[in-house]
Write the structure tokens for this entry.
Amino acid sequence: MSALIAIIIAYLLGSVSPAIIVSKVYKTPDPRTEGSGNAGATNILRIAGKPQALMVLVGDVLKGLIAVWIGHLFQVHGFMLGIVGLAAVIGHIFPLYFKFKGGKGVATAVGATLGLSFLCGILMAIVWAVVAFALRFASLASLVAVILAPFFLLIFAKAAFFVPSLLIAAVIVWKHKENIERLRNKTESKIEF
């Protein structure tokens, strides 16, 4: 029962969208209708600027981290704790409060991974940063980071986290299907830092 409560809380927490909140507070365009149409830090960077993007990034990471911490407080362990992290990511992608139109879940996945294993979360963030700075494609950096995360967790944390992290990766890769097509066609937008 405690796992179910933690999963519900994680989904509801994940449904809070810093990108939409920041856009309303700073009176910038709604990220769901401007730029890439994605309610996440990269799109906010493009349409609003670095300070707002940083706020969104921190907020999205914290959602995943806090969700997993709540799971710890509810004495949820192993596989089910990974599912708590998945629930936060699902909430970010399909937010209850914003007509189920959210972001792509990468920063929230980093936060959830930090909650499962600090080392693995840091490794995930480092992979993202290296790929993003080297190649200037946020989408490619995101894909590489989320695909490697289950293996980081398997090697450096608990095997029980592997399948939930694999599910997180699958949902995020699916959410990036248009980006993957643009990467293949060499039409994907690059990011400037």
